[in-house]
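Example for tutorial group B:
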């Protein structure tokens, strides 16, 4: 699994509270985003989202992971900008 792609997918889903919207923002399919998040959850051994047919919310573990993953992606973007 591409850990960076999985982190980006997770963060986009958490921000938009939608797999479909995250896929649109990432310019990929909903199934790819879903696989990334499922793979990340499997690797971590924790559920990151409470999913129902009508809502999508972060679990406690998901909230904690979101804060750190967001910082990591932001730091990476800053590092890339400082070089270019």
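The residue assignment follows.
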């Amino acid at each position: 699994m591409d850990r960076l792609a999985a982190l980006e997918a997770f963060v986009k889903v958490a921000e938009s509270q939608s797999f479909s919207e995250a896929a649109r923002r990432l310019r990929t399919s909903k199934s790819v985003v879903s696989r990334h998040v499922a793979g990340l959850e499997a690797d971590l051994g924790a559920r990151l989202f409470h999913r129902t047919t009508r809502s999508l919310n972060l679990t406690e573990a998901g909230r904690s992971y979101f804060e750190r993953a967001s910082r990591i992606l932001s730091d990476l973007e800053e590092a890339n900008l400082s070089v270019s």
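The longest strand covers residues 49-51. Compare this with the pattern of hydrophobic and polar residues in the output above.
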